[in-house]
Design brief:
This protein is globular. By secondary structure, the chain is of the alpha/beta class. The two termini are 27 Å apart. The protein has eleven helices and nine strands. It is a single-pass type II membrane protein.
């Protein structure tokens, strides 16, 4: 992970901090080999609660170390990042200032498989907090999240907590069509090799060194709502007397533009339903 992070264009080692949950010398020595700041802290809680407290301690410490930073980018140790990882956030972070209905910007697309996602310049809004490489605004953490963070006795997943309606408050996150992170970890508290193979392994991952994102302003709420409504109006009404499993349920379209936008609209609805189910 550290190799890919430092290889991404725009990486600044002075701005990277590795937080280690416990006093383990091996990972601390690795941070030194890379010339990075490594911080160990005493574990609090067990299992999911311990991970949750690790995140809180790391976020609080980061904003204390960098008192002038308006944002922090969170990356777990089992992720590779794309060459344009920092460029992606550089092009999108202004949206967090311009649109109060946005909660975060993530480098990860939960439904971004190799057979569904192919346009690295395309962005979406989704009704969840994807994580897996994301940018958090200082004011959101300090004014809302930090004081309400789950306490050590609560066996909650921090990311599931952040997706609760009373925490998210109807806000949405920006994600790319093609993910800027790739999950390679096959073992952990909530991970095994089977889940890695069936879910993460086939995710699309951008390898281009620089991608200019398209229509970034269209991600602002009002513009995005207009875009979605326009897609719905121009969409093809499917024959619901047929089973969705039939090959011709979604007919072939000769007009590529219309087909592409219909598919993007279908993906958008799929995101919402999936995240509401799991969240």
């Amino acid at each position: 992970m550290l190799r890919s992070l430092l290889s991404a264009h725009g990486a600044n080692p002075e701005m990277i901090t590795v937080f280690i949950d416990g006093y383990f010398e091996e990972p601390l020595e690795v941070t030194k080999l890379f010339g990075l700041r490594g911080i160990q802290h005493t574990p609090i809680g067990v299992k999911n609660a311990r991970i949750s407290q690790h995140y809180k301690a790391s976020l609080t410490a980061t904003f204390n170390i960098f008192p002038n930073a308006k944002y922090v980018i969170i990356v777990e140790e089992d992720l590779d990042v794309s060459p344009d990882f920092f460029s992606y956030f550089s092009q999108t972070k202004r949206l967090l200032e311009e649109d109060e209905t946005l909660y975060c910007i993530s480098a990860w697309n939960d439904q971004g498989y190799e057979h569904t996602s192919s346009d690295p310049s395309l962005l979406y809004r989704v009704e969840t907090m994807p994580g897996l490489g994301w940018i958090l605004k200082r004011s959101l953490y300090k004014d809302e999240l930090e004081s309400k963070w789950p306490t050590p006795e609560k066996m909650w997943d921090w990311d599931m907590w952040m997706r609760l309606p009373e925490v998210r408050k109807g806000r949405e996150c920006v994600i790319p069509d093609v993910s800027r992170t790739y999950h390679f970890g096959a073992s952990g508290l909530n991970m095994n090799s089977y889940f890695q193979d069936v879910y993460f392994k086939k995710h699309s991952f951008n390898t281009l060194p620089y991608v200019k994102l398209k229509h970034v302003d269209s991600i602002n709420k009002n513009s995005y709502e207009e875009l979605i409504v326009d897609m719905i109006k121009r969409g093809l009404v499917l024959d619901h007397s047929k089973s969705p499993c039939e090959e011709n349920f979604i007919p072939d379209k000769k007009v590529k533009f219309a087909f592409t936008h219909n598919i993007h609209y279908i993906n958008f609805i799929f995101f919402s339903n999936i995240f509401n189910y799991y969240g």
